[in-house]
Amino acid sequence: MPTLPIELVLLGWSTILLVVYIMTQGQMATLDRGLGWNAGPRDGEAKPLGTLAGRAQRALRNFQETYPAFIALALALAVSDRGGGLGAIGAWTWFIARIVYLPLYLMGVPYLRSLCWTVSVLGLILMLVRLL
Hints:
By secondary structure, the protein is mainly alpha-helical. 80% of the residues lie in helices and 0% in strands. Helix 1 (6-33) runs antiparallel to helix 3 (51-79) and helix 3 (51-79) packs parallel to helix 5.
């Protein structure tokens, strides 16, 4: 079996990371709104989210903003046979920064969280540079 480019391996792991973000947000919202709300049809106005659930929701939304670019770049690097080098470094940088970002956001850590987001975008830029 041929070895996959690291960008595709990280793409697979990023799917698990997406599920972690979704499950974290869902669990926090359920804690705030109750199991009945989560299991029900969610008709009508939802109870506002508390601090932690709100952070989890915003962290998920933030992940979803950069995730399409990561997917596109990882696939483009793999199919163009330009993986490795800066592309691999960029993919690892994005992936690790996105792992670190979630707990920083949930804990409400300012500045360091923003720096972590900036590092993740730098990872995407490195991937783009390798592709072009």
